[in-house]
Amino acid sequence: MSERDSFDICVIGAGVIGLAIAYELAKKYKNQGKSIVILEQESSFGLHVSSRNSEVIHAGIYYPTDSLKAELCVTGKQLLYSHCEQFDIPHKKIGKLIVAKNAEIDALAQLKKNAVANGVFDLQLLNRAELQKLEPHIEADAALYSPSTGIIDSHNYMQNLLHAAEMLGVHFSPYSRVERVETEMNSFIVHCQLDENRNPEKYQFNCQQLINAAGLGAQAIAHTVSAVPKKTIPELHYCKGDYFNFRGPNPFSHLIYPMPETNTAGLGVHATMDMSSQLRFGPDTEYIEEINFEIDGNKSKAFAEYISAYFPAIKASDLKPAYSGVRPKLSGLGEAASDFEIQGEGVHGISGLFQLFGMESPGLTASLAIAQHISERVEV
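RE: above sequence
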């Protein structure tokens, strides 16, 4: 890249959503000679939120009706399963059980109602005997069965999106950190620091459309865009979640979720698994001041205690620290869960700028639907 190159579209952030957006736009403008670049400050794609989650393809059960999360999750789930089939991406539609005690059965029925309002019509309420048949190691009085919930190899999926985008002419630029963005008439000048740890070089280029999909860094990027009104940038809250691997053979054939607690930042410590059936439990929720991915191994006792409510055989010694992730939440501790925020000109007044904030779960499931949502609005 030489000085003051010009691109039609710049996507900042090569997490799963940035990659999906670049791929979708590359398809939209195929053979039209439009140039698209993805900037990523890390050495590779998807190293933060996108690779530190449960790798679950969500059904769309929990989110408030008419929210972006509900709409984009339900649409995105179908798009993602089709994409996985088309490109042979490892995934399994293994189903999920949300388990409940007697006192929670009314709340479970309410959850089913909410899911139906969101367009999820395949859920089944199970009694104790039906649940025992499916998962004999689980202790609960009832369950909500979601057959369309699944798991995916998220790294393989992101690799596929990047490869498919590059085959359509998208430029991928790792080690590229955005320092500031100037807004001009109908265009942007993006100032970057390239390869700062090895061979630092300043670089700037023009683009017509700018998409901020920087995940945990989205607010920081927004603050570097000269004309963005500060009041339109939502506050960011880092919410950490740890995962522990289960040491023994996996006793489950479905994902197991407890009932979501009211006003918590997550869905409760649940049982999920990867494509090789390695069972893991997580994530918990802990609001933190600074990003850090260290796991406190001493948490295994608290984890085991929580999990024992639905899996009585669990012991703290069964749990081994696996990894942690940090969610870019827009709601603080004790506040009601927030929706995705996708801002266009109507919010900040800048033509050609799209900013995505609070892209936590179900961002992976919704990635292709989010990409379509953006693609429909981008015009170059």
